[in-house]
Specification:
Radius of gyration: 25 Å
Number of helices: 12
Number of strands: 39
Strand content: 25-35%
Oligomer: single chain
C-alpha cells in the first residue's frame, strides 16, 4: 500500500490507454477486494509479551469469509498463525491471566461429531503456544459472547434461551414464528420472539453450565472484575425493553442464586451494545469505565461520552466532557488514566485521558483512522489503525510513536494506489464542511474526469482517512471520487449531527451538492459526467439527492429506501422512527419529508441501480423494490439486484466482487463515452 514513485506523464498517458489499463496489474481492481486481510480484536497477554488477534480473509474455494487466530510477540518477532480451519472461523480471543492458554469463539465441529449445517458457535480453549483445542461449552443455542474468570477456571457466557425444549428432537421443519414483541426482528439475530439472551457460568474443566440471569430481557457484554468477585453486564429493563434505549450496567456475583444490582441510572443509554465496547473494570475492581449516550430522543445523534462509575456508591462522572465520541476504553495499570479512541473530523485517534484533570493527550496523530486497542497489566499499549493507503495494521505505541507489529497486506506495496486529499468548503447557507477527494490514477492537472460522489451510511457516521477499496477501484479506472461529510455526520459535535434530525434529505442534500460544486470549480469533476451512490443511509440520501437534482447521469442505491411509510414495521427500527419521526398516522408531515424520493419519484431523471441483501432486516429489500418499481413505471433506466441470503452487510466473496464489477459497469455505461479508456 505504499505509494509508488511518480512516473513521467508520458508513461502515465500510456497506462491510461484501454490496452495498457487492462494489462496493468499494479492497479487495484475488483478481484483485489477479496485479497484484503482484516486484523481485529487485539489482546495483549497480562505480562505484555505477546498479542493474539483475529485475521479475517476470503476463502475463495468455499466462497465464504473466514477468520483465524494469530499471535505476535511485542518485540515484533514470532508472528505465527495459531488456527488453521478452512471450514470454520475463530474470533474473540482472550488470554488466561497466567498466559498458559487462550479461549475463543468458534463454529468448528468436535472430531467425530455428525455433520450439521447448523453447528453452533461455542467457546474453545487451546494452549497459548498453539496446539489442539477442545470445546469448553456446549450450550444448546451456542455462545454469543464470553469472558474468562481471573483464575481461568470459569467463564461467563452470553447465550440465547434454547430454541427447543430440552430433551426434544429437532423437528423436520422450523416451528411457526410467533411473537408479541414491539421489536420483532433484528438483522443479526433474525426473527425475535420470547427467547432472550442470558448470562451463564461455565466450568471450563467439566463444561457444566449454570444460568444466573433470567427474565424477558437480554444481557450482553459481560466483564469479570479483576478480583473475581463480580461480573458486569449491560441490559435494558422496564415494562417493555423494546420500546426504549435505556441500557444500564448491572453487576452480579458469579454464583447461582446471586442477586443482581443495577449500577447506572442515567435516563439514556449507558453502554449501548451498538458501540461494541464492553464495561472496562479498573485494575483495583472499584470503578468501571463505559460509554454514556444522550437521552433516548436523540438516538445516535448525541456523541457518546466516556463515563466512570464507582461500583460501591453508583456515583458516575464524565472526566473529559468534550463534544466528541469515545470508544474502547482501557485502564492504565495505575488506575489514574484511561486509554480510548476519540473521533474528530475525518480522523479517529488513540488518546489518553487523565482522570483527575480530564486532560486528553493524543497518542496517534495525523490523517489516520484507529479502530481498536489493548493495554497490558504492565502498561504496554497496542493499537489497530490505518489510513487512506493502508488498511488497519497492528502497532505498538511507544512514547507517542508507533512500531509496526503486523501488516497483513504486504502485497499492496506492489499496487499503485490513489491518494486522498481533504477539501474544506461551505454549504449554501454558510455551514463549514469538509470532504475527501481521491483523484484518478494518472491524474493530469487541468483535465476534467468523470466523478463518483460517495454518500456515507449512518446517518451519524463520517468518511475518514481510512482505506476504501471501492475508491481505489474507481480511481484505477479513471474516476475521481468525492466523499462529502454533510450535516448529520459524526466527528463535528452534537449540533452538526442533529441538524438533520427528523429532516432527512434537506440540509444534507444541500451539503452534498455544495461538495460537487467545489469539485467542479476545482476543475477536477466533469459536470456532464457525475455519478452518485451509497449503501444504507448512503442509499437513502442518494435517493433524496436524485429526486431533488437532475445533474447526475448515474446512481447506485444499495440497501436504501425512498419511502419511510413502507419501512415502518418492515425493518428493525420502529422504535427509532417513533423517537425521531413519531408514528406515520400521527405525523404525516414528518413521514412525507422522509419519503420525498418515493412521493416525488416523477422528478427523478437519473438512471439508477438498486441493490439489497435478501435477508436484510436493517434496511429490507422493500426499500429498493419500491424505488425500482417507481422508476420502472416512469420509464427511467433502472435495475434491481438482490443478493441471496445476505444481511445488511454483504459477506460472500463472490457477491462482493460482483457488486464492485457491477457498479463499475453501471457507471461506465452512463459516465464514459463508448470506447473511452479509464
Amino acid at each position: 500500500m505504499k505509494r509508488n514513485p511518480c512516473l513521467p506523464l508520458v508513461l502515465w498517458a500510456l497506462l491510461c490507454s484501454p490496452s495498457a489499463a487492462q494489462a496493468d496489474d499494479t492497479r487495484f481492481n475488483a478481484a483485489d477486494i477479496n485479497r484484503l486481510a482484516e486484523v481485529s480484536e487485539p489482546a495483549l497477554s497480562r505480562d505484555g509479551t505477546s498479542i493474539i488477534y483475529t485475521v479475517s480473509t476470503a476463502n475463495l474455494e468455499r466462497d465464504e469469509p473466514q477468520s483465524d487466530l494469530w499471535r505476535v510477540r511485542y518485540d515484533g518477532s514470532g508472528r505465527v498463525q495459531l488456527t488453521h480451519t478452512p471450514d470454520s472461523s475463530e474470533s474473540r480471543p482472550q488470554w488466561s491471566a497466567d498466559g498458559r492458554f487462550i479461549a475463543f469463539l468458534s463454529d468448528r465441529k468436535v472430531d467425530g461429531e455428525a455433520s450439521d449445517d447448523d453447528t453452533k458457535t461455542q467457546v474453545w480453549v487451546m494452549p497459548a503456544d498453539g496446539g489442539e483445542a477442545h470445546r469448553a461449552t456446549n450450550l444448546p443455542s451456542g455462545v454469543e459472547d464470553f469472558v474468562l474468570s481471573p483464575d481461568g477456571k470459569q467463564l461467563a457466557a452470553i447465550a440465547f434461551d434454547p430454541e427447543y425444549p430440552p430433551g426434544t428432537k429437532k423437528p423436520k421443519h422450523p416451528l411457526p414464528i410467533v411473537t408479541d414483541r414491539f421489536q420483532f426482528k433484528d438483522d443479526d439475530t433474525g426473527w425475535l420472539g420470547n427467547r432472550h439472551k442470558h448470562l451463564y457460568l461455565v466450568d471450563i474443566a467439566s463444561g457444566a453450565a449454570t444460568q444466573i440471569t433470567t427474565g424477558s430481557h437480554d444481557e450482553q457484554l459481560p466483564a469479570w472484575s479483576p478480583d473475581g468477585k463480580l461480573i458486569a453486564y449491560v441490559t435494558k429493563r422496564g415494562a417493555d425493553p423494546d420500546r426504549h434505549l435505556n441500557f444500564d450496567i448491572y453487576v452480579i456475583a458469579p454464583r447461582a442464586g446471586a442477586k443482581e444490582r443495577q449500577l447506572t441510572t442515567f435516563a439514556g443509554a449507558d453502554l449501548d451494545p451498538y458501540w461494541e465496547t464492553r464495561p472496562a473494570w479498573s485494575p483495583d475492581s472499584t470503578r468501571i469505565a463505559y460509554l454514556q449516550s444522550g437521552e433516548d430522543k436523540w438516538i445516535y445523534y448525541a456523541p457518546w461520552q466516556l463515563a466512570i462509575i464507582d461500583v460501591a456508591t453508583g456515583k458516575a462522572t464524565i472526566p473529559a466532557p468534550i463534544d466528541r465520541c469515545f470508544t474502547k476504553p482501557r485502564w492504565s495499570p495505575d488506575g489514574r488514566s484511561v486509554y480510548a479512541l476519540i473521533e474528530q473530523a475525518q480522523v479517529t485517534h488513540l488518546s489518553r485521558i487523565d482522570l483527575p484533570s480530564g486532560k486528553i493527550t493524543e497518542l496517534t496523530h495525523g490523517d489516520r483512522f484507529d479502530t481498536d486497542l489493548d493495554v497490558s497489566a504492565n502498561g504496554r499499549v497496542v493499537v489497530l489503525g490505518g489510513d487512506s493507503l493502508h488498511p488497519p495494521q497492528l502497532s505498538a505505541v511507544e512514547q507517542d510513536k508507533l512500531r509496526l507489529l503486523d501488516d497483513p497486506n504486504p502485497w499492496l506495496d506492489q499496487k499503485h494506489l490513489a491518494t486522498t486529499e481533504t477539501l474544506h468548503l461551505q454549504s449554501a447557507d454558510g455551514t463549514a464542511l469538509d470532504a475527501l477527494l481521491t483523484k484518478p490514477i494518472g491524474y493530469v492537472p487541468g483535465r476534467r474526469y468523470p466523478t463518483i460522489v460517495r454518500v456515507h451510511g449512518g446517518p451519524v457516521y463520517q468518511f475518514s482517512h481510512e482505506f476504501m477499496p471501492d475508491w481505489q477501484v474507481y480511481a484505477a479506472h479513471g474516476y475521481a471520487v468525492l466523499a462529502v461529510n454533510p450535516r448529520g455526520s459524526s466527528g463535528r459535535g452534537f449540533e452538526f449531527a442533529k441538524a438533520i434530525y427528523a429532516d432527512w434529505g434537506n440540509k444534507d442534500t444541500q451539503d452534498v451538492l455544495a461538495g460537487v460544486d467545489r469539485a467542479v470549480a476545482l476543475g477536477v469533476a466533469d459536470p456532464a459526467r457525475l455519478g452518485i451512490g451509497g449503501w444504507s443511509y448512503g442509499a437513502i440520501l442518494t435517493d433524496e439527492v436524485i429526486a431533488r437534482d437532475t445533474r447526475f447521469k448515474a446512481a447506485i442505491a444499495g440497501a436504501g429506501s425512498g419511502n419511510m411509510y413502507g419501512m415502518y414495521g418492515d425493518d428493525e427500527y420502529a422504535r427509532e422512527y417513533e423517537l425521531e419521526l413519531g408514528t406515520p398516522w400521527a405525523n404525516r408531515d414528518a413521514y412525507d419529508r422522509a419519503s420525498y424520493p418515493f412521493l416525488h419519484a416523477d422528478r427523478i431523471r437519473t438512471p439508477t441501480m438498486f441493490q439489497c441483501g435478501e435477508r436484510d432486516f436493517n434496511v429490507p429489500c422493500i426499500g429498493a423494490e419500491q424505488m425500482y418499481q417507481a422508476l420502472r413505471s416512469l420509464g427511467i433506466p433502472t435495475e434491481l439486484v438482490m443478493y441471496p441470503g445476505q444481511h445488511h452487510g454483504l459477506t460472500v466473496p463472490s457477491y462482493l466482487r460482483d457488486r464492485m464489477e457491477r457498479n463499475l459497469a453501471w457507471y461506465d455505461r452512463y459516465l464514459k463515452a463508448v470506447g473511452a479508456g479509464p
